[in-house]
Design brief:
Two copies of one chain form a homodimer. With 145 residues, chain A is mainly α. Chain A has a single domain, classed as Orthogonal Bundle (Arc Repressor Mutant, subunit A). Chain A contains six helices and two strands; from the N terminus they run H-H-H-E-E-H-H-H. The first copy, chain A, has a two-stranded antiparallel sheet with strand order 1-2. In chain A, helix 1 runs antiparallel to helix 4 and helix 1 crosses helix 6. The relative contact order of chain A is 0.16. At the A-B interface, helix 1, helix 5 and helix 6 of A face helix 1, helix 5 and helix 6 of B. The first copy, chain A, binds a DNA duplex (30 and 30 nucleotides) through helix 3. Chains A, B: It holds the Pfam family Rrf2. Chains A, B: This is Rrf2 family transcriptional regulator. Chains A, B: InterPro entries: TR_Rrf2-type_CS, Tscrpt_reg_Rrf2, WH-like_DNA-bd_sf, WH_DNA-bd_sf.
DNA sequence: CATTATTCAGACAATTTTATCCGAAATAAA
DNA sequence: TTTATTTCGGATAAAATTGTCTGAATAATG
C-alpha cells in the first residue's frame, strides 16, 4: 500500500527533523539532516531543491548556509508537502484507474473512495509540522528507523 | 496517490467484467475479457495466472476453455483480490515508511493512518464482486474507459 | 586571494513496475 | 489424427521510480 512515494516520505521526515531539532543558526545543512535521519545526502538534496522551488524552503549557499523553512512551522501543513512532491492532482485519481471518474461517470467504488480521500485530505490539511514536531519532542512518537 | 498497483486495478476490473457479463458457458476466455475492457491480453493472462494460483479462479485449457470463479461472486471480497495481488502485508505498512511502526514505536502519523487503513480494510472486506456487479448491471456505475 | 563548505543542476545507474512476446502444454472439435 | 484454441511459464523490453555521482556556482573565512 504505497500511498506516498519515497520522495514524499523522506521529505516529510526530513522537515520534521528540522523543526524538531532547531540549530540555533538560521540555516541547517542538508548533510546534517541526511546523516541524522539516515538517508542519502544526494537524494535528500534533490528533494529539498524541489521544496525550495515550490516555496516551502529557503536556501542559502556557502559555508554556514543550508536550508530554512519559508514559513513558520505552524503554517506548513502536510498537504502542502504532499502537493509539492506528488503533484496537485494527488487526490484526483480513481481507485480503479478509470479516467474521468467522478460524480457523472463513477466507477463501482467511487463513493467509498471519495470519502476516504476526503478524510485523508482533511487530516493532512489540518496537521502542521509544528503539531507533529511537538509529539516528536515530547518523545510521544519517533522519527528514526 | 497510487493505492493499488496497475495489476490490482486491472484484476478487479476484469473480475467485475466477468461477473457482470456471464457467458452462459462455464468458462470465459481471457481474450474476450481483455478485449472488452480494453487491456493487454498478455498482461491480463499473467494477472489471472496469479489469481488462479491463489485459488480465486479456476482455469481450463483448450477450445471453449478459459477461466471461472472458484467461488460464488457473493463470497469473493475485494480484500481477497487485493491480498492475492498485492500481498498479505498490504495493510501493514507505515505511511512514512518506518519499519516496525506500531503501537509500541509509532511514527508521528500512526494513529491517523491506522484508522484510515482500518476503514479501508473494513470496506474492502465487506464488498463482494456480486455487490459491485449489481451496480454495474443496473448501469448505476461504469467499468469501461 | 585561496580554501572550504555549501546548494544547484543534471547526468547516470540500479531497481521496480508495467508491458510485450514466444513457445510449450492441454484439450476440444473437425 | 490433425488442427485450432486456449492457458501456462518465463524471457525480454520499456517505463517509472529511486538512488548515486560529478562538477559548477555561491559565499564565508583565514
Amino acid at each position: 500500500m504505497k500511498v506516498l512515494s519515497q520522495t514524499s516520505k523522506y521529505g516529510i521526515r526530513a522537515l520534521l527533523y528540522m523543526v524538531s531539532h532547531p540549530s540555533g543558526s538560521e540555516y541547517m545543512s542538508i548533510g546534517e539532516i541526511a546523516r541524522e535521519i539516515d538517508l542519502s545526502f544526494h537524494f535528500l538534496t534533490k528533494i529539498f531543491r524541489e521544496l525550495t522551488a515550490k516555496g516551502i524552503l529557503y536556501s542559502y549557499r556557502g559555508p554556514s548556509g543550508g536550508i530554512a523553512l519559508a514559513k513558520p512551522a505552524s503554517e506548513i501543513m502536510l498537504v502542502d508537502i504532499v502537493f509539492a512532491l506528488e503533484g496537485k492532482d494527488y487526490f484526483d485519481q480513481c481507485l480503479l484507474g478509470l479516467p474521468g471518474c467522478g460524480h457523472a461517470k463513477p466507477c463501482p467504488v467511487h463513493d467509498f473512495w471519495k470519502d476516504v480521500k476526503h478524510d485523508i485530505r482533511v487530516h493532512l490539511s489540518g496537521t502542521s509540522l509544528q503539531h507533529l514536531s511537538e509529539k516528536i519532542v515530547s518523545e510521544e512518537v519517533r522519527l528514526l528507523l
